[in-house]
Amino acid sequence: MGERAQQFGEVILAVESVSLAFGGVMALDDVSFDVREREIRAIIGPNGAGKSSMLNVINGVYHPQQGSITFKGLSRSDMEPHKAAKEGIARTFQNIALFKGMTVLDNVMTGRELKMRCNFLQQALWIGPARRDEIEHREVVEGIIEFLEIQAYRKVPVRQLPYGLQKRVDLARALAMEPSVLLLDEPMAGMSLEEKQSMCRFILDINGHYGTTIVLIEHDMGVVMDISDRVVVLDYGRKIGDGTPDQIRNSQAVIDAYLGVAR
Amino acid sequence: MSFFIEVLVGGLLAGVMYSLVALGFVLIYKASGVFNYAQGSMVFFAALCFVSMIENGVDFWLAIAITITVMIVLAVLIERTVLRPLVNQSPIALFMATIGLAFVLEGASQIIWDSQPHLLELGIQDEPIAWLSQHASIYISRLDLFGAAVAGILVLVLAVFFHKTRIGRALRAVADDHQAALSIGIPLQHIWAIVWAVAGFVALVAGLMWGARTGVQYALTFVALKALPVLILGGFESISGAIVGGLIIGASEKLAEVYLGPYVGGGIESWFAYVIALLFLLVRPQGLFGEKIIDRV
Predict the structure, then answer these.
(1) ipTM
(2) Which of A151, A157, B104, B171 has minimal Cβ neighbours within 10 Å of its Cβ?
(3) Which residues in A lie closer than 8 A to residue B165 (C-beta atoms)?
């Protein structure tokens, strides 16, 4: 990892003492960690550890009661999902949230929504930059579709695709936003071994090719250890570990959380 | 033969009037996956707002402009107070909210204005076109023809809106999945306000056309019931479906009344549309133009 570590840039995203409660349940309890540019950062933990809550806080779906998120030097405690998207945070969903009635191509095109420059009237009348705009974005989208190897399904309504492919379309749509940070919510959940391996390859390729910073939540320890640069471990909403995969593997607190310990 | 044509054309034109109402439903269904129970009330509200101004001597076009503004403000209010708190809730919750909205609108419009029937003059006579009745002895109402033209233009505008603009794509995205739409940066709030405003505008057009025929009164809200079979025929998310569905319903109910009516004692026009809808539900539940329902098992 030494060589790879030198490629990382500044801290792009910092989570500072974030606490989030739902009624009496503490979903997140004073959690802090940072993410550097171009790294693959994993958040792991057993069921109910607060992983998804963490992602939803970064994304602006939940507003933490305490603490703040600093993204690209700007600190804030409450965020709205569509504003997060505007600032360059894209995400995928654990239970795929695609536009099921639309084709793969249209789904990925929606990811370009924020990049479209021409106004509504120009597009309605198909004048001005409208045509060039559409063609330009189409090109980018075709590139992404090719990159994720889903060309064959471009015109297929997403609803008809198998699970593994839907996950890939979800990823393609997020990638179409050309985000600076990509949040992946259990990208490997429910996949077969082959699907997991190809997803791993895609994640590494995206990171290598586009230089996208990736924050991913994962259940499957093995997979995470193979592809992440640094790992945060959560348990019952608290951070119990933070470091390289090797450090995490040897941490007693993490082993206890995963295997259980006599108290 | 000319009598048959007259009945047919009369039915088709009446059908266009149903389509006008159905369009409002389709718009909101497309953008939020919700059946807007309050659409009939919006028709009533818009027509009453307009006609009250006309009666107070406001200029025709000024009254149109003001009513459109009122409908836009209403759309923003609905988004703020009804839809925004219900983001990510199930469609049935949103549907229930629109039922409440219907009562609020109906009550409010009768408090603000009154519950008397009002006459609405558009300056177009609801009389047969003289040229046609003389030369082909076919009697077709001028108002019906005007209504058809208005509906045609409206559909053209909406079709461009939905298929040529990225707002159209955003709308479909919002209809499919709220959360995902937010995550790619589509401001759900704006989209909803836009759609409800457009649906409000469509309600105004429908209210004017129907109001000119039946007078502006509470019964106008029931026009929405006639749109139901149209929607079942055409499919809830298809604009062209709303038009074709309206034509089929209008023509078949008039033809049935004239040719089948005498055998069963007449008066079948008022329920024949629902029989057609029922038959359609058995054969093609997604409607003529609706999206085919495919479920992975």
Answers:
(1) 0.72
(2) A151
(3) 120, 123-124
